Amino acid sequence: MSLPDNVLNLSSNTPDLRPSAPFRNVKTWTRADFTPRDWTVPVTVTVKNELHSIVDQLTSQNLPLHMLTPDHFDMPKTRAMMAKARGMADVGPGVAVIDRLPLDDWNEDQTRSIYWLLARLLCRPVAQTMKGTIFRNIRDILDAERGTDNAMSQRQLTYHNDNSGNRVLPKFTSLLCLYPSIEGGESEYCSSYTLYNALAEEAPELLERLFQPFYHDRRGLQANGQPTVSWVPCFAYDGNKLWARFSQMKIKIGHEQAGAEMDNITRAALEAVQSIIPQKRLSLRYMMERGQIQIINNREGLHYRAHFKDGKTLEQKRHLWRLWHRDEGRPVYDG
Amino acid sequence: MSDAPTILDLTGETQNLRPDKPFNDIRAWTRANLTPDLWTVLVTDSMRDELRAVVIQLRQQNLPTFMLQPEHFKLAASRTVMAEARHRVDDTCGFAIIDRLPLDEWTLDEIKSVYWLLGKILCRPVAQNATGEMFRDIRYQGDNDYGGRDRSLTMQRLTYHNDNSGNRNVPHYQSLLCLNAAAEGGLSEYCSIYSLYNALLEVSPVELERLFHPFYHNRFGLQADKEAVAIRAPALTWDGARLFGRCSINKITGGYRVAEQEIDNVTRATLERVVSIIPEKELSAQYLLTRGQTCIINNREGVHHREAYKDSDSDNSKRHLLRMWFRDEGREVFDG
Question: Going by DSSP bridges, is the β-strand pair B158-161/B302-306 parallel, antiparallel, or unpaired?
Fold first, then answer.
């Protein structure tokens, strides 16, 4: 099939296999299987002491944030904590919440330095924009400043993968909660394997559609002169891992941008993903609190955020710092 | 002798050797036998094209400056030029002027990105103060007195010295990218420490020997909190292969002051002799940096100097250099 000029064809690089049976692995959990203990990684007193010591060292002799590297600090317990979190996000259930950093002991720069060092232990941080934004402030901002990113509003974000229209998806998304909202903002995470199993049982023809390509709008985040839409399946299976690349909003706009009408089965497949997760209680739910870091596997699971309301003071306005991580390619936005 | 607790004694870390004869290799040059072509490394067309391509890539997809890595770009010609510059700095003149970058084509951020990448090819950049400053703006800061501290931020003359000589780890290299030259003055000089050694050996052997003994060096408040305010270390050491200079009259006189030690006559005469013998014997090379040129010096095997200068009222005629420091030892923080 020939694609419009504004479309980046990524489907030819995507494996076109199908699982031969429903998944039975550590990632095929549902809400009923999971308690907070299963996704929580406590920050121990020893880890806190290591981090306090780093802050003391930085107070005495600092470097630009992006030059800080964990190799320069004595932090064995912190390394072990982050290795555990990575294991949970990568080869475990797909999500980990680090509970929690003593933010009240540090100023903003110190908090950022610690988050950066922890992030580097997790996986290489990469840019979230073409300009090279590494730390993204996730909070409600004025419409005029928001651009196309609904994460910077108080609105609900339906189930999606971050940056799903890009050439290379972040492997992990991490979010440090500086302040929660006064109301709402609950997070959810659903494993792609669990979603696959549920769709295989309830709507196999729609599941098959998800393995076929869709148009994904790139939200104007691509480099100048690059195609504005990508063409790639929502699900891809390489014989081992099940990759998801899903955003109903980006796909709807992507079809408009490509001048392609969405047929009924395409529309139904997108709606099935959004409806089956709450209907079958496939996702875990949690409310982030100040000092917690949420780490999710962005390729093997979808996440969601409920609508929230901010209060009037700074401390009552939901504010998270987001990082994206991947090891492949260069650390620039497009990899 | 016993030091006050305010002194960091580094004498135990230095070797107490002496060269057994004058130096007669290429490093022991004087003004008479060094011509500009020996210290000038031209920016080739290929290098310029590579750097332009880097800037175009950064305009498309950028990263914070300090995350930029040479490995992420095609910089083969730039690597060749930087290797030649490093060779001259390490093994021949002790300094090199890279002539020159097309600054007028780039914004200041782009200039910094290119300079950072070239710097990383040269050697590891390190912090220039405890807050972690990597690019130091060397320009007049509005006060020619400047509290006796960083005189490079004045328009005053800077006498022969090694940068950061009061620190635990002296930068191996210093580079200066000239964004704007002064309206008047600002001539730079560089003197090989091997030439200085030879000259002192011939006419002032007593003063030369004194340089191999410890001095107090003021750290001028750049050290970390609760660290010693001065160090005690020789101004010259020899490890059997290379001389290592750690000399700044300003820091040494300040060091004796904070150490509450009197400067004896030999010490005073030695410092004065270092400063007087270089112009007297024409040991140093002289050069005037112009916009786009990058001067790289071996900060351990040579002393450098800057003449007083005057800025004009026009922003384009205010002297402004971007300084970086480099070393491979220790951590990248100021104190290493």
Answer: antiparallel
Q: Is the dihedral of CA A253, A254, A255, A260 positive or negative?
A: positive
Chain A residue numbers with beta carbons less than 8 Å from the beta carbon of B226 are: 60
In a domain, B331, yes or no: no
What is the DSSP secondary structure assignment for residue B5, as one 8-state letter? T
Q: Give CA–CA dist A327/A49, Å, rounded.
A: 29
User: How many angstroms separate the Cα of B6 from the Cα of each of A313, B9, B256, B298?
Assistant: 47, 10, 12, 30
Size of interface A-B (CB pairs under 8 A): 65
Of A65, A127, A223, which is closest to B63 when you measure between CB atoms? A127
- State the DSSP code for A21: S
Write the DSSP assignment of A275-333 as a string of letters: HHHHHTT-SEEE---TT-EEEEESSSEEEEE--EE--SSGGGS-EEEEEEE--SS-SST
* Per-residue model confidence as pLDDT tens digits over B94-143: 999 999 999 999 999 999 999 999 999 999 999 999 999 999 999 988 87
Q: Give residue limits of the domains in chain A.
A: 28-325
pTM of the shown model: 0.94
- Local structure of residue A247 (DSSP, 8 states): B
B61 to chain A, any CB pair closer than 8 A? The answer is yes
User: Span A40-63, mean pLDDT?
Assistant: 97
Residue B209 forms contact with A (CB below 8 Å) = no
Query: Quick one: closest CA in B to A68, which residue?
Result: B332
By CB atoms closer than 10 A (0-12, 13-18, 19+), residue B5 is exposed
Considering its fold, how many domains does chain B have in total? Answer: 1
**What ipTM did this prediction achieve?**
0.93
Residue B283 lies in a domain: yes
Pick from B63, B72, B224: CB nearest A60: B224
- Measure the CA–CA gap between A101 and A41, rounded to whole angstroms: 11
List CB contacts of A143: < 8 A, sequence separation 6 or more.
none
**Architecture of domain A28-325 in CATH?**
4-Layer Sandwich (3.60)
Q: Whole domain around residue B146: which residue ranges?
A: 30-326
Interface residues from chain A to B (CB-CB < 8 Å): 59-67, 72, 127, 130-132, 134, 223-224, 330-334
A251 has pLDDT over 50: yes
Q: Is the CB of B62 less than 8 angstroms away from the CB of A134?
A: no
Which chain B residues are closer than 8 Å to A331 by Cβ? 63, 67, 72
Q: Which residues of B touch A221 (CB under 8 A)?
A: none
Interface test with A, best of B61, B113, B227 (most A CBs within 10 A): B61
Cα dist from A137 to A180, A217, B198, whole Å: 13, 22, 61
| pLDDT tens-digit map of A144-184 | 676 667 888 999 999 999 999 999 999 999 999 999 999 99
Distance CA B34, CA B55 (A): 35
C-beta atoms of B130 and A333 within 8 A: no
For the residues B27-45, what does the mean pLDDT come to?
Answer: 97
* Contact (Cβ atoms closer than 8 angstroms) between residue B303 and residue B196: yes
Tokens 């912090």 correspond to: B127
- For A27-31, A220-224, B36-40, B166-170, which range has the lowest pLDDT when averaged over its residues? A220-224
Residue B99, classed as helix, strand or coil, is strand
* B224 vs A: CB within 8 A: yes
Q: Is there a contact between B132 and A132 if contact means CB atoms under 8 Å apart?
A: no
- The CATH number for B229's domain is 3.60.130.10
Torsion from C-alpha of A144, A150, A152, A153, nearest 10 degrees: 80
CB contact under 8 A, A72 and B60: no
Identify the CA nearest to B303 among candidates B161, B188, B198, B196. Answer: B161
B336 belongs to a structural domain: no
pLDDT at A225: 87
